[in-house]
Design goal:
The protein is α/β, with parallel strands linked by helices and 355 residues long. Helix content is 54%, strand content 15%. It has twelve helices and nine strands. The strands form two sheets. A five-stranded mixed sheet has the order 1-2-3-4-5. Strand 1 and strand 2 form a beta hairpin.
Length: 355
């Protein structure tokens, strides 16, 4: 098995059939090392592989699901007729991304997510610098916050704060070992907006600064809210109320309109929140059909992680599964138990919280 790496893209070229007893296991271990080491685009060249068995199929499924879990991509290149037939019979040919050539499978460096993020960040910083240096000069003392120019300036500051929050969150998300929750991503962006709004309200008033600090301590220590997004929205609503009470209707109107639109943008930008479940699958005998189970998970875009193996008269396994909320649990259970799959029962439950 040979590897050719280009930063975060790796080409793996096995030169033997992916079968149990050595080759499939070595490939699976190698893929695990690559993703752990930072690979974010894995290309598997199967042109030198003339066969595959159930162990090899399971290794491909795990490559696919591991890539999904870490936010990477997995592409297969040039599988031969025998390999394609096995994938077709396993109903995985439409699940995997399959290309005919390495050129089609590779992602140009300039199109990589890291490069795009860098370019967006550089563009945002340049726009902020130009805005501060040329277009948005500091307001003169006593200038009206209710004028058209004042409202536009405030709205521009809120937009800039929102973009900064999104940029920092995107950068942080790429370098975390565990994925960020959707609520935490929203909270970070909204907290940046709230900081900008608070500073616009405080200005040079020490009394307003003490008032906001006191209100923030009430929310932090006395309000039993678990969702960080809810806490941030509550703080934003408090600042909007303070702006209205101070007669700063320019800040209040711009802030209210921006917050409503920005919350909608957050919902669409983050996509649907995936559901996390614990699934216990019991077999009809001592042999657990692990390959069949993982194939069903892969076909339905379920990111899974084995958590517990139960040995007895009937073998069983517990998986931590992450899936789209629109996926029917009954349908997944039916797929697991269909035909002679040797599955006796499937039970789903939300993960237990510790604390």
């Amino acid at each position: 098995m040979m590897d050719r790496a280009s930063r975060r893209q790796v080409l793996v070229t096995p030169q033997e059939p992916l079968v149990g007893g050595g080759p499939a296991e070595r490939y699976e271990q190698r893929v695990k090392e690559l993703f752990t080491g930072g690979c974010r685009h894995l290309v598997l060249d199967l042109r030198g592989t003339d066969g595959i068995d159930s162990t090899g199929v399971r290794a491909l499924v795990r490559s696919h699901t591991t890539a999904k879990r870490v936010g990477a991509t997995f592409t297969i290149v040039g599988p031969g007729p025998r390999v394609r037939e096995v994938l077709r019979l396993s109903r995985l040919d439409s699940t995997f991304q399959i290309c005919d050539s390495i050129v089609d499978a590779r992602v140009p460096r300039w199109r990589g997510p890291g490069v795009r993020l860098f370019l967006l960040g550089a563009a945002l910083c340049l726009l902020l610098w130009l805005a501060g240096a040329r277009w948005l000069a500091p307001a003169e003392p006593g200038s009206s916050w209710t004028s058209g120019a004042g409202i536009l300036a405030n709205l521009t500051k809120l937009v800039a704060a929102g973009l900064i929050g999104l940029l920092v969150t995107a950068v942080q998300r790429r370098f975390r070992d565990k994925p960020m929750t959707r609520a935490l991503e929203h909270a970070q962006a909204l907290l940046c907006v709230s900081g900008a709004m608070v500073m616009m309200i405080i200005g040079e008033s020490l009394a307003r600064a003490f008032g906001i600090a006191g209100a923030a301590s009430i929310i932090r220590f006395r309000t039993p809210i678990e969702d960080p997004k809810d806490i941030t929205v509550l703080f934003l609503l408090m600042t909007l109320g303070m702006a209205t009470g101070l007669g700063a209707f320019g800040i209040a109107s711009a802030g209210t309109a921006f917050l409503c639109v920005f919350l909608l943008v957050l919902e669409h930008a983050s996509g649907a929140e995936r559901r996390t479940m614990m699934v216990e699958i019991e077999a009809t005998g001592k042999d657990f059909p692990q390959t069949h189970v993982e194939q069903v998970f892969a076909r339905n875009e379920i990111v899974f992680e084995p958590r517990e193996v139960i040995q007895g008269k009937e073998a069983a396994m517990v998986y931590h599964a992450t899936l789209d909320p629109s996926v029917s649990l009954d349908d997944i259970s039916a797929q697991l138990m269909e035909g002679d799959s040797a599955i006796a029962s499937v039970s789903w439950e939300p993960p237990k919280r510790h604390g």
